[in-house]
Amino acid sequence: MQEREFWQLVEEVFGRSYGRALAQDQELTGLEDLTAVEALKAGEEPRVVWNVLCDQMDIPDTKRWGRGHNAPPMPMR
């Protein structure tokens, strides 16, 4: 997943305004309390950030990839 795809999903799943605010303000406990924006700037894989954000916001797998999207593979670590 590229960062561009991350932001597309943020808008599709959460809505443009709420999604952007959520990404800037919501501390993600699974990522050392960084926000999504901070985690991306720190070099975390967008797919990891997306999954942590969705897990924290209780977004089920059936809705987290939006319409017509398939879950991209997890990054190699």
TrEMBL record:
Domain of life of the native organism: Bacteria
Protein name: Cytosolic protein
